[in-house]
Each structure stands twice: as C-alpha cells, then as structure tokens.
Design a protein that fits this description.
The structure is a homodimer.
Chain A lengths: L21 E6 L11 E6 L4 E6 L7 H10 L6 E8 L5 H19 L6 E8 L13 H6 L6 H7 L8 E9 L2 E10 L12 E6 L5 H13 L16 E6 L20 H19 L8 E9 L2 H12 L2 H8 L5 H10 L10 E4 L2 E5 L2 E2 L5 H8 L3 E7 L5 E8 L3 H8 L4
Parallel strand pairs in A: 4-5, 8-9, 10-14
Antiparallel strand pairs in A: 1-2, 2-4, 3-9, 6-7, 7-8, 10-15, 11-12, 11-14, 12-13
C-alpha cells in the first residue's frame, strides 16, 4: 500500500445509513497484508435480487467466472470478498479455491450454492489458499451487522490510499429508498470492462432483469468512462444487490425497466456510481490531479468516447498534466492517433474556459501565462471540439506521476 | 534534452562511408536549441529515386502533408530537416512555412520544387519561423559534403541522448552497394505509423516504385514493431533515397520488386532499419532496459502483433520491468485486455529461458529468485505462447521509469 494519502481524497465522508436486509462482517485473515482487515462478507435476506457487470478481459479471474455462472439465477444471499490475492491465472487451483470458498459461504449463510458471489483482488498468478479464511465465514456471517459500510470499504482496499463509500436516496412510488456503495481502485483501471471492485446495495424492490438493465446502462457513463493507466484488470467486478425490504414500507415492486416510477432511482444510482468512479480516479496510483476530458463535435458518441480515451490514456498528455504544462500540442497528437475521423484544421481545444487552439492553430488570444496558471489546479478540465458532427462524450482520468512508477515498480518486491 | 546519456547507448559507432551522389550540410539556425546544430540539408544528384512512409495520425504535420504530395513524382534532389519545432498543428502558417522553405530549398539545389522533401521535429503547435533558416540553405547546399553522416544524425536530435546512425552493404549483381541511415527518437514512439524521423540513402540503382515497395514491407517488422509510450507523433517520417550511382560501377538497374538480384539488398535494408529502430527504443525517454516481446501460438500474425503491442504498451508491465520485478501476472492482464482470441488455461510465459507460467498456472518449477535474477539484465526477453494457432510476432519496447515522467513533465517548461 502507498504510504501517503492522495491529496485528492474526499475532504469529508458521509454517515452511512443501514440497508434493510443487508448485513456486513469483516475480519483479519492474514491473506497477504498484516495488521488490517482483508476479508469482507455481506449477507442478504432471502428475496434479494442481484445484477453484475464484469471485466471484458479474455483472461478473467476464477471468481469472475464463478460470478458470471451464478448471475443467471438472479438471486443473492452472500458475498465474500478478499483482498491481497486476486485468484487470477491460477488455473485448476483457482477453481478449487472458489469451490471451497463457495461451499463454506453457502453453509455460513444457510443458502443455496447458486446464491453465493465471490470477488478477489490483489496479486495475480499466485494460488489463493482459501483455507486461510473459509473457517472464518460461519462466525462472520452469524455476527454480521447492518451498519458497517465504512469497515466494508476498508477491507477491500489494496493500493488505495483512502476508503471509497457513498450513499444516496431516491423516491420510489411514495417511499424513499436508500442506495449504499463501496469501491476499491487503484491501478489497472480502464474501461472495456465493468470496473475494479464495487458493491452497491439498495432496499428498493426491483426484479433482477430490471436491475441488470439499469446497472449496465449506468456503467457506460460512469465506471466505463474512467481510466487511470489503460490497463484492464482480470478481476473487475461491479455488483448491485436489491434486498426489496422497502416493499414492507410500501415501495412498489418494479418488474419493468421502462416503469416511469424508476426514473429517480436511475438518476440516483447514476450519480452514486459516478461519485464512486471519480473516487477511484482521484486515488489513481500516484495521482495528484483529476482530469475531465470532454470531446464534442464528433461524428458519433462512440467516436467521441474513443477520441476522449485516446487523450486520457496518452502518457504524454498525462505527464504534461503532472508537470502543470499546458502542452495542447500533445492533445492534438492524441486526437490524431485515435484513428477516428478528425480534421486538423477544424479542431478547437480548451483548458477550462481558456481556448488555446482554434480551427487548427494556436488561438490568437493565447496566453501561456494564463494557461499555465490554470494547470496548477487540482481539477483540470480539457475540452476538444472536432467540428465534424454532434457526437460527444466525457471521460475522467488522473495525471501520470513519478509516484505511479514508484508504486508499480515496487509493488511486489 | 536529457542531461545524461542512456545506459543502453551503443558501445561503439561505425565509420560512415560516403554514399555517392548524396552530400550533407548542417548548421546552427537557433530555431529553439542554443549552441548546437539544428538544421540538416541533404543534396542528391539528378536521377535520385525516393520512397517514404509517414505517420498514420489523422492530424499530420505540415511537412508530412508536403512530402506526401511530392512523393508521387518519385524524384528527390534536396531534403531539409529542422529540429526544435515540428511545424505541426500550425494551420495556414504551417503551410506558409513549408512553402517558403521549399522555394528556398529548390533554389539552393537548382532543382524543381517537386523534388524537395521536408521534415520538422520538436514542439507541436508553435508557428515555425522559416525565415530563421531559409537564408542559410543556399550556402549549406553549395558547401555540402559526402562524408558528414554523423553530423547529420546529431542535427536532427531532440530529446535523444545519443545520435543514431548505421551503415550496411549488400551485393547487387556483381557490385557492392552501400546503405547509410540516420534516425531520431525518443518519445511519441509507437507503431500505426511510419516512425519518428529516419533518413536512409543508398547508391543502389533502384526505381522509385520498387523502392517504395521494399521500404513499406521492411517497415512492418522494424519501425512499426517498436513502441516507447504508445503515442504516435504527428510528424513520423521514414524516407529512402537511391542515388543510383552504383550503376556507374556496373550495378544493374532494378525496376521490378520481384527481381531476385534484390534479395541481398532487401535483407541488408531490413537489418539496417531494425538496428535504427532498436537504437530508437534503447533511447526511449528514461529507458533503462530494452524489452523484446514475442508472441507465438496466436490465431494469426496480426493477432500476435496486437497481443504483443498490448503487452509492450502496458504501463503496469513497463513499470514492473523498470522495478526488475518478474511480475508475469501483469503479462496475463495485458494478454487479456488485448481483445484478441486467448484461452487463459493454454497460456505459457517465459522470461528469457525461464518458463514462469505453463497452461494457465504458475510453472511448477518456478523460482522467484531465478526470475528476479534475470530481470536485472539490460535486455529482457518476454515470450508468450497462446497455444491456439501458428501466428507469431515480435515487437520491442523499453521500460517505463520515473525519468520518463520527469522528462515529459518538464519538456516545455
């Protein structure tokens, strides 16, 4: 783990309310880290629906393959997450570890095996000794409590420098429902995937297929629009659990994704996922600045997102931001290499409100001093207008600093 | 420019022979750098054929657009290269600068305007004041000499820490012909392009269409198989000039790319381009290690190259190499994110001769100590077998160090 907390850490954290029907237990299993919690169990009441989005890696971890299989049932009773070892690229041993964990978890929750979900994060390629923690699951599940969300967020951290958790509420019919979410980063963060690890729970009564539909849509503009280093983990997992307990207080059961009563919930979920995604970016390994990149005027939204990601993933752009250098020439380079339609002589570029380039040339009113001044901020906004069409997209990233190299060159050794 | 010379710099340099029909002049024009040569002129005798490969950026520099237009004529009389300013994203002013330079160059060489070629390298987005050096071209061309290849290599450097030049010879019919080449790096180096800047000249009598054919083919496995940071320059240019002077010594005129007498020349050119490409990689900004990545067992050669580049461009792989960490889990990650066919449980991975992973698991004989020992070398070789088919590819890159970030965070400021 990194020694010092990111300067972009939240200034304050919310009080996390309880989610009726969801209980949390954490423990110190000593999987890799010493002197800290590295095991999380979430137990859900019967009737809990589940949705999930996972990495698009062609070499996913054993837990990701396990979750994909169980997701089709749409029901969840227990989630087990360990940090310190990703159980990825562990072959037959990896499948044995997920089987052992799942059996112990099902026993602990008194539930069917196909209602168990697992996630692992940490080093890749080393066998996970499930025996180190399977004996703890019974006690953890029995002692789980509803109000331990911050502890849950801390137990899943790896190189994160701060815990990531957030809460939201929304009207559903005549009732207010609650949504809680936790996440962990902090390297191997790039779209083309679900996300790192993030677990969200709500008491809203929403059927599993509807839950899956709204989660997938909300992911595209949140977790799949952030990138730290363009590297996609084998283990990225985002899961959403709906206990349905708010039905006891009069909330309506939602079984149709087009149900208009769902709109406030969708908005609240989208905002919550965006907050978590940005907390991940702001804790990108070595990050000192948050960078928002908006591309407008593209031929399509898809094209805009590809150009935006080409900028966000360019090492030369990211090091320039780290050096507080308004080097918009590198933005042009990144637009050019994206392979998407672009006409150099129609390009305009802004840093914040400062237009630095207009119609393919340096802006006549460009002031190096003004632009450099802007670059000293913690939050940098870059906008590129391609001048070709109406497609637009926004993505978020962080700068690339010497600390990123230090953290990732020394992670295992 | 960087303060210290890369530890991977060549231990020795070749004596550069003359290329009959090609003469070189260099000067200090003060475009950006002080106290060093930043202007190169190559003058070619009448009858010189030319070929070129350029960046695939959608936002190419003004000189790249200029060269593409003149290339169709197939004839070259003069090449002008400046360092310090790339004349890229300079709009109308950029085209004015190339026009002014081209007119002055044509006058200087007493040649037609469509036999002029231009290249610029350095900062993007700042207008190039051609007036700073156009008045020098007449004298430079008049005083150009055949034996100044090392000076030429030095005049085109930007953040390069050492000059890049190499020579080769080949049989052509009953005659020996010579090939000289120079290049410059050192950031924004990635395939999907021709290359940074590289200029190669030979006295072999080869027709322009044949020259273009063999240059394009040789590029795929040399300059287009290296990457420093995945960033593609707006200015990448590789040109090959053939003066044909060896015909006076009895070399045959080659007008057909399939002419079997051309085989030794093709091999020599390929080797020369690979040497230059590796010199560029070994001088990648902040580079401390050269990394060769070979992917075998892919569904196709194209698929193998995409997987190899995914590994070569992964910040997490590159920082692990910098940290001398045999972190093969990150290789798996990079295979997984490439989006190409891969089966986790068929993967095998080697560092040098050490097999670290076999059929999707850590190799039973894996020794952390042995692998760590290997990682201390200057030249690291990584091989991945996908176990799916017969496609293979090799690419080269360097490690990602704190110095890369330092160089690129401070380049302009």
């Amino acid at each position: 783990m990194s020694a010092s907390i990111s300067p972009l850490a939240p200034k304050s954290y919310p009080e996390m309310p309880e989610i009726a029907g969801a209980r949390i237990g954490v423990a110190e299993a000593g999987i890799k880290y010493k002197g800290r919690k590295d095991l999380l169990v979430m137990v859900f009441d019967e009737g809990t629906a589940v949705a999930g989005v996972f990495t698009r890696s062609r070499c996913p971890s054993a837990p990701v393959e396990f979750c994909r299989r169980n997701l089709s049932g749409g029901k969840a009773r227990i989630l087990v997450v360990n940090s310190g070892n990703a159980n990825a690229f562990t072959g037959r041993k990896g499948r044995e570890a997920t089987s052992l964990t799942a059996e112990a978890a099902a026993r602990a929750a008194g539930a069917e095996p196909d209602t168990v979900f697992l996630a692992s994060t940490g080093v890749i390629g080393e066998p996970l000794e499930a025996g180190r923690f399977t004996h703890l699951l019974g006690e953890l599940a029995a002692g789980a409590e509803a109000g331990r969300w911050e502890e849950a967020a801390r137990a899943i951290m790896t190189t994160d420098t701060y815990p990531k958790f957030v809460t939201a509420s929304a009207r559903l019919g005549d009732c207010t429902v609650t949504i809680n979410g936790i996440a962990k980063g902090a390297g191997m963060i790039a779209p083309d995937m679900a996300t790192m690890l993030s677990f969200v729970a709500t008491d809203a009564p929403i059927a599993a297929p509807v839950l899956q539909d709204i989660l997938a849509k909300a992911t595209a503009k949140t977790f799949n629009a952030v990138t730290v280093d363009s590297d996609t983990s084998t283990s990225d997992t985002l899961m959403l659990f709906a206990t349905g307990k708010a039905a006891e207080r009069g909330a309506p059961w939602i079984t149709d994704a087009k149900d208009s009563r769902l709109s406030p919930f969708k908005r609240a979920l989208g905002k919550l996922l965006k907050t978590l995604a940005l907390q991940v970016v702001r804790d990108g390994e070595g990050a000192r600045k948050q960078v928002e990149i908006t591309v407008t005027g593209a031929k399509s939204a898809r094209s805009a997102k590809r150009v935006a990601l080409s900028i966000a993933n360019s090492p030369l752009v990211k090091t320039a931001v780290a050096g507080e250098d308004a080097n918009w020439g590198r933005i042009v380079m990144a637009v050019g290499k994206a392979g998407e339609p672009a006409d150099r002589d129609l390009l305009s570029i802004w840093f914040g409100d400062i237009r630095v380039a207009f119609e393919g040339e340096r802006d006549p009113g460009y002031s190096e001093e003004q632009a450099s001044d802007y670059m000293r901020r913690d939050e940098i906004s870059i906008r590129v207008d391609l001048g070709l069409g109406r497609g637009s997209a926004t993505v978020w990233t962080c700068d690339l600093t010497k600390e990123y190299v230090a953290i990732n060159g020394d992670y295992r050794s």
